[in-house]
Amino acid sequence: MIGKTSHVKQPRAVHLIDAENLCGSPLLTASAVRDLRRTYTDRVPVGPMDQIILASAHISVLALQAGWPGQRYVMRSGPNGADIRLAEIVAEEQLQRRFQHVYFGSGDGGLAPFAGFLEGNGVPVTAVSRIESISPRMRLATSEVIYLNHPAVALMRAA
Questions:
Q1: d(Cα 77, Cα 47) in Å, to the nearest integer?
Q2: Taking the model in full, what pTM does it have?
Q3: In sequence order, which ranges of the chain are alpha helices (DSSP H)?
Q4: How many domains does the structure of the chain reveal?
């Protein structure tokens, strides 16, 4: 039929990124965030409809904006502040209803229960981490792990 368009829903993912964790430093620079953006988007599939949320302490927000512009930025200072903000997003924003895949850009074990919650609600979760900073809890809570700094880019967990 002429003029008929297909309304196939594109799968959407959300990328919850603890920039300090993935950069390996509590104090971010725009250069370090640019390097992270390049590495992350080279190794992790980011679709045109995906949402990227970057978390850090307040002191690093300008580096986030300069190094990875045009995204959503959330801040919380103090121990595990970025992870706490990401956990709040999972708890408050019903990601399991809005996204078909969740990427946790953090290897911190404190986020493992939130990854497990999403997996338990039918949303596949991938942990994105540096190999030296992934916790065993996070590795077990997710269906896939992508290491940003390792030649074996992705490791699937045995079913």
A1: 30
A2: 0.88
A3: 19-23, 30-43, 61-67, 81-92, 95-98, 112-120, 136-141
A4: 1
